[in-house]
């Protein structure tokens, strides 16, 4: 059994505007860079190998956290939101409220037009975890909100048709145990903000 620590990238201008990012390659905002500089990997996880989504907001976060050369992993990319990338949920609800609502209740099988479902994002994460890195743990994985949700779903069998069994807090890391092709919760909501902001 070994462990993997997941954490989300710092904020971007699109986050501040409420715009859906998905695979769109946005960078950290100036405020996001300042926030990440205030974070610190807790000592018990420091020195672990670092993987990151190839999207620049995740790679920038990893570097600012002290991972000078994070290993890019495509499986850690955000869920692909297809035609909805760049829009806000408010705009989508105005355009087609009934259609969005009927899609949202599908949980893991929710799918944006030309995009992927949370189930598919969870499957690519599971494939990477169980077939690619079993001998390379413990590790840190800097990724995206959709992948944090995918990991929680994988560990708890949450089908995303209701609220998550545990609310994942912002600016926190989440540790899981990997064993026998299973992901199990170790510690969730580990605070990262331990350094004073520059």
Give a verbal description of the structure:
- About 30% of the residues lie in helices and about 20% in strands.
- It is an alpha/beta fold and about 200 residues long.
- The protein has one domain (about 1-190): Rossmann fold (3-Layer(aba) Sandwich), CATH 3.40.50.
- Strands 3-2-4-1-5-6 form a 6-stranded mixed beta sheet.
- Helix 3 links the parallel strand 2 and strand 3.
- The radius of gyration is 16 Å and the shape is globular.
- The relative contact order is 0.22.
Give the helix/strand layout.
Layout: E1 2-8, H1 13-17, H2 30-37, E2 49-52, H3 56-64, E3 71-72, H4 89-95, H5 97-104, H6 118-131, E4 139-143, H7 145-156, E5 172-179, E6 182-191
Parallel strand pairs: 1-4, 2-3, 2-4
Antiparallel strand pairs: 1-5, 5-6
Helix pairs in contact: 4-5, 6-7
Could you write a compact summary of the structure shown?
The chain is α/β, with parallel strands linked by helices. It has seven helices and six strands.
Structural features:
single chain, 198 residues, alpha/beta, Rossmann fold, six-stranded mixed beta sheet, 18% strand
Number of domains: 1
Shape summary: globular
Query: For the residues shown, what is the average pLDDT?
Result: 93
Main pleated-sheet profile: 6 strands, mixed
Specify the CATH architecture: 3-Layer(aba) Sandwich
Q: What is the topology, as strand order, of the major beta sheet?
A: 3-2-4-1-5-6
The CATH superfamily name is Phosphoglycerate mutase-like
Gyration radius from CA atoms, angstroms:
16 Å
C-alpha termini separation: 38 Å
Structural class: alpha/beta
CATH topology annotation: Rossmann fold
Helix content: 25-40%
| Text of the CATH class | Alpha Beta
Report the β-strand fraction as a percent range: 15-25%
- N to C succession of SSEs: EHHEHEHHHEHEE
